Amino acid sequence: MTKKIILIGFIVFKFILQYALISPEYDLQRDEYLHLDQAHHLSWGFQSVPPFTSWISYIILLLGNSFFWIKFFPALFGALTIYVVWKAIEELNGNVFALILGATCVLFSALLRLNILYQPNSFDVLCWTSIYFILINYFKTENTKWLFIGALVFAIGFLNKYNIVFLLIGFVPALLLTKQRKIILQPKLYLALLLGFLLILPNLLWQYNNNFPVITHMTELAETQLINVNRIDFLKSQLLFYIGSLFVILSSFYALLFYTPFKPYRSFFWSIIFTLAVFMFFKAKDYYAIGIYPIYISFGAVYLGAILQNGWKKYLKPVFISIPLLLFIPFYKIGFPNKSPEYIVQHQETYRKLGLLRWEDGKEHELSQDFADMLGWKELAIKVDSVSKRLPNPDQTLILCDNYGQAGAINYYTKSKKIVAQSFDADYINWLRYNKKIVDVILVKESNDEDKNRKAEIPLFDTVFLASQRINKFAREDTISIYVLRGAKVDINKRIKEEANQKKNNH
């Protein structure tokens, strides 16, 4: 009963922290708007992500699409990660101290940052941790039911984020180095693999029927973002993600090699080496690897709990539990959107030293990229609403945006049921509508727009003018221009179809 009360306490505190770490000055993040809009376009796949996130978005939509529910689900996945680590410690015969230490380490880690955003990453970490937990249970009992449970969890994880494939790539060679390689002789393993394949098959067929957009997406990612990834910086980030738990994770490495009760789990030691090596080879983003570590916190906590039982060592227990909290305090001050943009700009040096101002373009900016991507969206939607109300034919008006962040934010915040923002960017290119006559166009343009005089559009409309601008010097898009194109002289739907087809062909 005491253990349950402690666990519930950790989970409740986790939820409270997740909501408290976001200042009301910030909107949702750019990617969140895209994921939320996927609820209106359910499919077995998307250009940007597999389908699982859209299913959660549909649940959020049914619940009212409010900020509370948007932030609830990543917090829930983070809380469930704590729960799985707790259960893993119990399976490894950890004592109460080990349970508290493990939960504390997972709570006060990079997961708090990850779990503030509604993205596939939070569920990805939960799936990595769950699969590792399932492997522990299989190695402990050799009950083949765990193979089927593992296949199910892997399939769901795959339908959430393809990143989970790296878990298999890292663990298979690790198995071959240990006695656990006998699993390959287990016939039910292949039935479990078949089950997993059948579950992910609809997504694979969607990829095939859509010319494998995941390959296009990864190619673009490699050319525009991963090219800026530094492998040394990748390793530095791994240390920072769980800095308060580093001594526990390092203890797990020792225990997996030399602690007799952990002999059946020795493949976990080799697995982390192989997995990190693969991530580094592909120059993956540092946060892709966050899901590796929670299970190693389980091993380390159990080992430390065993060796701190007697003598003077038992007095180290409160010290060890306090370390994750004490080392988290500095991160709390700079790692979350709980400070105003003005404050961050005035204290840039602290953020710069930890690399928090470096964006995916490889350059340093005034704010963290995620924070800059959480500013100005609601104001943009309000301005577009205001412009649209001044037009006489809202039913015959197209709102065309430069990118998915703009389109998603407008669709989320708009008060007008007649407004549906569209774009040629990301998944929106597959959601373009051609079911109405278009007379007027509201054009939402990025700050780097080269045709500010709208020379390309003037011949196509009776009137073209700049109607409004959303200016926020701290936002990733500091200036967004809103143009009105009145009285179309050509078939706009035809033009939209032609441009969409051209962009798809280019990809």
Q: Which overall shape is indicated by the principal axes computed on the Cα atoms? A: globular
Mean pLDDT: 90
Q: Regions with pLDDT < 50 over 5+ consecutive residues? A: none
* Helix run count: 22
Determine the fraction of residues in helical runs and give it as a percent range. Answer: 55-70%
The arrangement of helices and strands along the chain is: HHHHHHHHHHHHHHHHHHHHEHEEEEH
How would you describe the overall organization of this protein?
- With 507 residues, this protein is α/β, with parallel strands linked by helices.
- It is 57% helix and 7% strand.
- It is built from 22 helices and five strands.
- A five-stranded mixed β-sheet has the order 2-1-3-5-4.
- Helix 21 links the parallel strand 1 (397-401) and strand 2.
- The longest helix is centred in the first third of the chain and has 25 residues, at 67-91.
- The model has no long low-confidence stretch (mean pLDDT 90).
Concise structural overview:
This protein is an alpha/beta fold and 507 residues long.
Helix and strand topology:
Elements: H1 2-20, H2 30-37, H3 52-62, H4 67-91, H5 96-107, H6 111-114, H7 120-141, H8 145-160, H9 165-176, H10 187-209, H11 213-224, H12 231-241, H13 246-258, H14 267-281, H15 294-307, H16 317-334, H17 341-346, H18 348-353, H19 369-372, H20 377-389, E1 397-401, H21 404-413, E2 421-423, E3 440-445, E4 461-471, E5 479-488, H22 492-506
Parallel strand pairs: 1-2, 1-3
Antiparallel strand pairs: 3-5, 4-5
Helix pairs in contact: 1-4, 1-5, 2-21, 4-5, 4-7, 4-15, 5-15, 5-16, 7-8, 8-10, 9-14, 13-15, 20-21
